[in-house]
Fold each of these.
Amino acid sequence: MRWVTLLVLLTPAVARADAGRLLTDHSFDTDPGGQLVVDAGLLVGMPAALPAGLSTGIAAGITRTCGCHFSYGARVGWSRVAEPGTAWLVTQDDFRLRAVGAIRHDAGRGSIALRLGLGTTIVHEVRDREQGMRAGLTGSELQTTATRALPAGELEAVVGIKIAGEWWLVASAGPSLDVLSGSARLGWVSQLGVGWQP
Amino acid sequence: MATLRFAALVALVGCGDLEGFGGQAPPLAEVQVAVTGDASLVPATADLRVAMVWGEQWLVEPICILPPENDAAAAVIAAGCRDPFGFVAARTAANVAAAPGETVSIDLFTLPGADVLVGDLTARVAYASLVVYDDRDHSGNLELARPNRIPDRGPMGGAGDLPTNLDDQVLGASFISMTQPDQRVAYREGVFSPVAAFYPRAGCGDPPPAFSVLAAGGFTAQAAIDATLAGTLPKEDPATCAEGALADSVISVPIQDPANVSEIACSERTTDSSVRYREPDPTDDPPDFANRLSACVHSPSFGAPSSTIELVVSGRSEDSCVGLTHYILKGCREGPDCGTPDWDHSLNPPTWWPCGT
């Protein structure tokens, strides 16, 4: 028994690694890819013109990176919110059109950026009179529609990580601002999606 | 070209103002009411208003439509029974100021609730009467009252929380009784059942879907009795019938002697319209019968005469609404024939019991 214990204790001393190393200094090196990044994903944010509710939808963008820390591009998004009030069921579709510019820093597989987007949010509003269908209302008494383009923008922190080959996981969030009837409305927006950098 | 495209985009995206939850909400319906009739019946200091009142489903007590058993019973029935064919108010939906000879508009911002819609989800209807009244308490609303039945220990259900005296004075209504010509507001959902006996208008057209204004000439009490015995509904004269849209109709409310229309503001308990009986408990204090009429009668029956004697008591003469209170020595709240009685004082009636055992 004593000899068996001694043998067990001495065994690690004679163990050795494989001849080749699993990890090297270049194990996490990535292909820097091209200058264009296309991304798309889910969008959640405050409605541009409605004081209540959560607007959810999708967004996509294209960004051109250059050798420096600056990148620029364009983004589009659509989101919808539907909220009941005392008299109206309000549905608003927000179409976001933005020109974006970002200050970016890459670190290994990751990238962090501060992105400023400016443009317009086109809001299409449909209001249905509560109980109007049951009451037999028709026309504008039953439903009203309106469309407005609002000056808008947002400042987002963007975090990306290269997950496989040319594919990125991209998340962003930050405050937004739009101007409705001459007054500024502060909100927020966040996005989560995947990017492709061929 | 680019400028044109931009202009087109601006034109496209600038259509209308975003209102959100704000802006003016159109009423769900608008009812036009003309106050007609003898304006001299309106008190000089009257705060005249028009209310729209939804009606409820309620059945009159059997004793009120059967021949009276004796003179005392006839007096109690006269003092305690409302019009068996009368409109029974459930809830005031809307009010607006009015004046004799003028037409006013009542905007409705809510639909009738399920408590005043009669029928199932596939076919239900509600009816309303337009009531002209003197808003004596200046509350801006037509308050409803209930019969002043003698208080009981058990639950009364329905309109038990309403007052027994009404400050407001009713001066006219568009729908008073099925035995009189009427104009009523109808609200229908789903199909319409032609055999529904809820303020029936047999012989007239179905009410249109949603809101509408209906009219009928009324039927006689005897016609209603004959039709009931035949298992049908009493027929209206088709020449007196009308069904129209709210927008195309003006409901006329003639001002009348208040004595003829005061019942319009009286609601009834809505549990199931059945008679609730009281227990004359010998251990309790005697009920207060002051200013009430009472009679001892056999329990009313549409079949073989009942051997049960009950005490029936009217309301007080100063009450706004009429009603009856029933006592039996042996039985249950539901009646004397309830199987195992909840009480039996037939061998030891209270000292105040005026009837036989």
Amino acid sequence: MNNPTEAHAAGPLSPGQRIAMHYFVAAMVLFAAQILFGMISGMQYLMPDLFFNQLDFNVTRMIHLNAMIVWLLFGFMGSVYWLVEDEAETALVGAKLAIINFWILTAAVTVVVLVYLFVQIGPGELKSIWLINEGREYIEAPRWADIGIVVCVLVFFYNIAATFMKGKWSGISGVLVLDLVALAGIYLAGMYFTANISIDQHWWWWVIHLWVEATWEVLVGCIMAWGLIKTLGANRKVVTTWLYIEVAMMFGSGILGLGHHYFWIGTPEYWLSIGGFFSALEPIPLVAMVVHAVYDSGRHGFKSTNHPALAWLIAHAFGNFFGAGVWGFMHTLPQINLYTHGTQWTASHGHLAFFGAYATINIAMIYIALQRVRGNVWMSDGLADNGWKWKWSLGLLNGGVLGMTMALLIAGYDQSFIERAVEGSTWSGYFQAQQSVWFLQAMYWRMIFGCMMTLGIILLFWDMLTIGRTETRVIKKLAPAPA
Amino acid sequence: MNETPWWSSESMWRKSAIWVTAFMAVVLIGLTFDTVRQITAGGERVPAYSIINQKIFYEYDDSRGYQVPRFGGTQTLFGAALDEADAEALVTLGKLTVQAKNCMNCHTLLGNGAYYAPDLTKAWLDPGWVHEDVREQLMVAFLMDPEANARTFGTGRRMPNLDITEEEARGVIAFLKWMSSIDTNGFPRGFTPIDQEDGA
């Protein structure tokens, strides 16, 4: 089917690939929304009266975050739809169901965003939580949408699992399907109301942490494994073994690493030791991923079928390691976290980690898909115009996010020092830190690098719309995988 | 190529992945039972909602190396002592309001949320409320009309008007007072509470 060694004139997309393209387009629209609302939120730090009482920070920031969560999920679902038929070596079981599912999910997301924008808040009643906004960071979607999301994810899961059952199983698909069960199941932990904020945040972290620092990581591990086989022709046995190693280390450290969110929310003191220890181990599988990706690429002499995709896969390996691994480790021990928790340190870590670990791999998968959409064309070295668009967008997006990360880190230092260490964590201490020159300079720099990212995304979209269109050569033939 | 050594064999790592994941999940579930027991309202670390009838203050604990919440003396909210059910109802109204008004996308609660506005973990005890005698009054007025009673500390960053009713404002204050009683293992570090000379 989508075998990279096959010749040109690939014919129409398969059902799974067509559905994947729907998800990818929606994901890119939401990516643009994420950047737009991120820019507005960033500006509100510098101009607090911007859209005051119309589109306040709590709304712009919520859309910034939710657009991100949803576009990453759409990107993952698209990626899985893209690879499922190739991996199972059979056609998708429920193509019609999948397309209906996509439109229901997209319509629901649209309604949720419109309500965020135009209703924004409600009275202090359960009704508001069911219909408007749950008011819990990352999972603000109202309860009706939560239920809808679970149903849609179950339909997605059925489609994927049934396709593998009809076709054939592999190491990658086995891990993928088990991981999707966990991913869907964990979401349920975030779906109830309690007055007790400690209990609330305890379960809320089950969703946020066990998604972002466990099940999502394993999911992108599967996508990475498949991506390396496709772009480099990496040896399946080696890749699968690496995937198992990553799963063992990821869940081995990440499940109890949950404890680093249980330092200060009322949870018992033993979490200081457990959370500190296991979360300090969390970077290890990310190092493994870098080694694995770079080693495989080097072993194949960086000869790939798809240069942009491979570049973004490598950006993923490094972004995941630095953003999630290094930036997470920097403030994961409780002795440091006591001063950094709830400051811009977290924002710094969040920006680099989400982009580095997840945005990158979705972009890589979209490039793999685009190559097929344009007719399995050549996407290796010597592209038209020297491939300046993909190279510059890669540089601008990664450079932009790295610059923002550094700026926010400096703002975080300022807060930890002035607000926490010197001023005793009072509100007046908080505002002193916010007015310090270091903090304000950091906020300016953050905006400058935000502009850089905006340029990067414009260029990225331009490249995605044009790459391969005028290409006449067919996809590079890979040499057989070295043993 | 030679045979794959045991330490890099696919089946060894597949089994390891399954066993490690299963073991960690079982440990987490075990710890979860104990944690939830300890953080249930009225448990060891999270007081019952009726704590809002009492004075809350902080004391340095030598053995733990940081400040811990202590309770003592009657200090009712809005002049009425509430039984456990009424206290829970009021805190619940406050928590619902905090969620429905999306407070967490500007503020942090227990350090989690957004960083555009100050942390609310110890809002009840913040020295910004001048004195305990006027605190409740100032808080209600601020929550109901944050524009007219803006507290920007010179930053120009104002809280928007969120249509909070007086009843909701009281609920939010009860919720904040109750939240300040939670044992947070010393977070935020070295917090300086509002004047509490008649504490202990």
